[in-house]
């Protein structure tokens, strides 16, 4: 008989253990476990005579909660870098916009300087186009056009009929004059020059005698004697000069001048002989190019060119703004007034992008958050409901509060706690069943107590709910 009791007791233990571990593994539904947990026999409450039997469905809802600040944020750097300096300490109160951490920014500053230089250059190019041509530029273009026209005229002249024959004749005359000056006087030429001088003297004397007879005439300038006097005088001077040249010889200056005349005539003849129709066409093209350049300078920049220059300015402005943004990303500033609750970085350390390094919170007021309400509990709670809050660390403190927000999305209780680099608002729910769907509820207390600290444990009493 005792063996049977042992077997029965062992069976009960096996069933109980299977039920427990099945529940932990999510095999048995919660409703079934509640049935197993309920006593099979309950003594009915005593009822007074004549009192109707009414089954009560009301139940009291309580949930563990935590004290959290009204506003908190975990701050990180948007880029990777080395910390240049940390400007705050843990527990320090900061103002919105205050610089908290600064990374080394040598490369970013160089980028800003380059972008500023490019912008200044683009603006200068735009101003140059908008201001129009300078007088010096117009004069330079006009000089270039005149030079091209001179080259063209010189080449065109070489291609005219008879130009080469004329140049050859000029060269022969220059050579003859040079030989005359350099070979010395010929006796026969001196005799001829003497005869010509004497003849010119006789003609001058005859013309002077005729002129003297009518010189008192008021119209002397209109008489033929006056013209004959001028011609005889000129012929005498020319004959005298030739006679003197043959008598004394040429001066060094005259010989040098004659030699230069020979070289000039030879160069002109060579240029005319080398002139080709293709060179003339090329010279004409240069004239047209110089004329077009001059016209363009006088007209000034076109609207399309100014638009392109303005586009370059806009691009340079955008590049400068991008460089300034990159520079600003080396700074971490406070987004609001608060207290540095956690500082996880120091000068000289390497930081990774988007990795929290500072926790900032507004500790001026508190809220109560709970993650201990299952879907069955939260169904009877609405924003505006009044609650009572007590605190484990402050047994004598009881405050009233109001439900201000219920998160519309439920969370699985196993995934509800949040782990990370910085302390999180994790709620320890002792009686929460793993795998339940729970909802975050935020309560605004009617009064604030300075003794409250972040993450202090609280108990929220929502009262009886149907």
Write up this protein.
The structure is a single chain. A hairpin with a 6-residue loop joins strand 9 (386-391) and strand 10 (398-406). Helix 3 runs antiparallel to helix 10 (303-328). With 466 residues, the chain is an alpha+beta fold. The protein starts with a helix and ends with a strand. It has helices at residues 2-24, 30-37, 106-131, 135-158, 163-182, 187-214, 224-248, 252-274, 277-299, 303-328, 375-378; strands at 59-75, 81-86, 93-94, 99-103, 331-333, 338-343, 350-351, 358-374, 386-391, 398-406, 411-412, 437-445, 457-465. Strands 1-8-12-10-9-13 form a six-stranded antiparallel beta barrel. It contains eleven helices and 13 strands.
Listing every helix as H and every strand as E from the N terminus to the C terminus, the arrangement reads HHEEEEHHHHHHHHEEEEHEEEEE
**Rounded mean pLDDT score:** 79
Counted by DSSP, the helix tally is 11
Number of strands: 13
| Gyration radius, rounded | 59 Å
Distance between the first and last residues' Cα: 50 Å
How would you characterize the largest beta sheet? 6 strands, antiparallel, barrel
Structural class: alpha+beta
